[in-house]
Amino acid sequence: MKKIIYLCLLAYLCLYGKAALAQLKLNEDPSTEENKFSDLQDLKPLEIGDRVPDLAIENVINHREGELRISDYRGKLLILDFWATWCAPCVKGMPKIAALDQELDEVAILPVTYQDKEEVEKLFSRLDYLKEVSMPMAVSDEQLRKLFPHRTLPHYVWINGEGVVIAFTGKEAVAKDSIRQVLEGEEMLETKEPPKALFDRNQLLLMGNHGFDEDKEILLQSVFLPYIKDMPAMYKVSGKPDRSRMRILLTNSTIPTFFGLAYGVGKVEFNRNRRALEVDDPGKLRHSLSRDDYDEWKLANRFCYELLVSPKYPGQEYDIMKEDLKRMFPQYKATIEERKTEVLALVRTDDSIRLGTAGGEPYSDMDYVGASLKNKKISLLAYYWRYYLQHLKLPIIDATGMDYPVDILLEGKMSDLGEIRKCLRPYGLDLIKKKMPIDILVIRDSERKNDN
């Protein structure tokens, strides 16, 4: 009888192969090596109250074995710190995170990033205040990011000693007092809601009627929507190189951002440092940091917009957008005016230093601790600095007159004007404050006629 059962089982395994074997493995001890999650498709986002699978976390730097398991932290409060090298608050807060991890025996904090070992080690070798940080960190991560999807950084996931998710928080909650209160059971963390769905900016924002012939393409479509919860604030312009078919997308953006993109027509970006708001009530165009009603304000004053333009209207996308803005926001009008303004100007200081390129595949990049141009125009530096130097609240202008590709490598903090100037000196360049005439986007109240 036993022999018959054995032969039947053998035939079953031969017939169904891997599928049968996989099903048998599901019944094994979940801590065994055979049940290691090797397929990212097996990982589903976790919520509060879910138990974290005993994953093998690979690519762990500052750790002698280079690999950890979730079960290694059983009995401790584990805080996963999702971060990136380009996230200034993440980088600035790393020494504090390391100190908490070192000081609190009942707590383990594991920084996690999707970036690779080389990028992380480059950052830590360049910044003096990071050179003493030597805690284990997970790099090149895909698994944990799949389990805990998020849109903003830093993002913290709290896992208790039994391996159960108890909270998703921002950086404010990661403090000694609140951690101790959680350990002692005295505090329930105010948790962030996990994202309902990840937004794909390559998909249409709003679809119209379905059921027509598949070869029917939209000739012209524009749509405004109110603020959408959990949608990132961003814009994207895409289309064919000849601009015969174009798409303009803005999500959860302010009214000045709409005007800035439309009147910039893809050539000059009128960001907040190149706009003048000359209106009676600027509070509808920008939120004041002195007010604490931002959640209500954004619902009334941020909008989403999508414009699709077919070859029937070649090169007319920004004119069409301007007309849409007139209909949607008739209370405002915009003009471009040249005004003498204080700017940060990238200038040449030594013409004897010849700048050029050795050729090769064009490449450009800037992060918190450096910048690199290879066979690219130098104006890209001014473009990148708009983000890293936005705290200076000055327009950044390329005034070098160099309209040809160059190779440049800058190693220094890209949010520190002093360090940037030091990095530029060997190239005969400087970034200085000066007054010069530039185009400014001016937004005013529309002139209204008397009803009488």
TrEMBL record:
InterPro entries: AhpC/TSA, Thioredoxin-like_sf, Thioredoxin_CS, Thioredoxin_domain, Thioredoxin_ResA/DsbE_sf
Keywords: Isomerase, Redox-active center, Signal
CDD domains (alphabetical): TlpA_like_family
Stretch forming the signal peptide: 1-22
Keyword Phosphoprotein set for record: no
Domain Thioredoxin: 46-188
Domain of life: Bacteria
Gene3D superfamilies found in the cross-reference section: Glutaredoxin
Organism of provenance: Echinicola vietnamensis (strain DSM 17526 / LMG 23754 / KMM 6221)
GO terms assigned for molecular function: antioxidant activity; isomerase activity; oxidoreductase activity
Name of the protein: Thiol-disulfide isomerase-like thioredoxin
